[in-house]
Every structure is written in C-alpha cells, then in structure tokens.
Amino acid sequence: MGKQGHKIFFQANYLVRITIVCSTLLMFGCESNKQVECENIFLIAQDVNQSNQNLKDLDNEQSESMKSWLLAANNFSQAADRLKTLKIDRSESIQYQDRLAHIYRFYARTTHDAVRARENKDLSALKSARSDAVKAGILQRQLIQEINAYCL
Questions:
Q1: What is the mean pLDDT of the chain?
Q2: In this predicted structure, what is the pLDDT of residue 3?
Q3: Mean predicted confidence (pLDDT) in 139-150
Q4: What's the burial of 102, exposed, middle or buried (CB within 10 Å: 0-12/13-18/19+)?
Q5: How high is the pLDDT of residue 60?
C-alpha cells in the first residue's frame, strides 16, 4: 500500500471512529435525558405524596381537619403546576407529565368538592367527591406503574 492508500485507510478509519463515538454519545445522552425526566417527575410525585400523608379524617368537622384537606388540595394544584413547568423533551415523558398533572388537578378539584360538601352537610356531594377521589387514586396508581415500567 502506497502513501495514498494509507492516507485513505486512516481517513476512513477516523470517520468510522468518529461515527461510533457520536452514535454512542447520542444514544447514552438520550437515555440519561430520559432518566433525568423520569427522576424529576418522580420527585414531584414523591413530594406531593409525602406532604399529604398526615391528612385528618374529613368526617371530623373540626376546622383543623378542613384546613388540612384544603392544604392537600393546594399541594395537588402546586404539584400539577410544577409538573407542567418541567422541561421535558421526549414525547412519552410529556404524555406521562400531562396525565399526572391532570390527575393532580382532578385530586385538587375533588378535595375542594369534598370540603365544600362537608361544610354544607351535603352527604350526596360528599359521597360523590369520595368516589371521584377513589377513581383518581386508581388512575394515579396505574399511571405510576406505567411510568415505572417506562423509566426503569
């Protein structure tokens, strides 16, 4: 092989190496981006769950109980807002982000409805709000399972 042959071989070999390196960076860069997006979603979900763990029984008419439920509704609204402000690029992650934010808004609305029904002593509205909260809980658990499967 002459000088020209070595030069072409090294240029081709160099291009192959550059292509492999770029492909690897792109592939792992996307995966780490997915992991960051998942982690950010999970941090918000974990935060809202922890902040709402000590709710008092809504059957109790004391104002402390009502305040804790209104605080929970506020926590759900804030979590939905925080989810919507996350910078997420992957279409699947965006769908999970939107669905979880929707569930948190539904939880907030349902919680406000339950408090209002309790204050007005409207048993029918209270039962309806509780039923909606159960539905939201089921939706949330199913979605978290989907997100886990996607992220892990």
A1: 81
A2: 56
A3: 94
A4: middle
A5: 54
Which pairs count as long-range contacts for 66-73, CB under 8 Å and 24+ apart, including other chains?
66/115, 66/118, 66/119, 69/111, 69/114, 69/115, 70/111, 70/112, 70/115, 72/111, 73/107, 73/108, 73/109, 73/111, 73/112, 73/115
pLDDT tens for residues 32-49?
689 999 999 999 999 998
Residues in the chain: 152
CA-only gyration radius of the chain, Å: 25
pTM of the model: 0.75
Instruction: Kindly give the interhelix angle for 123-151 and 3-51, rounded to the nearest 10 degrees.
Output: 160
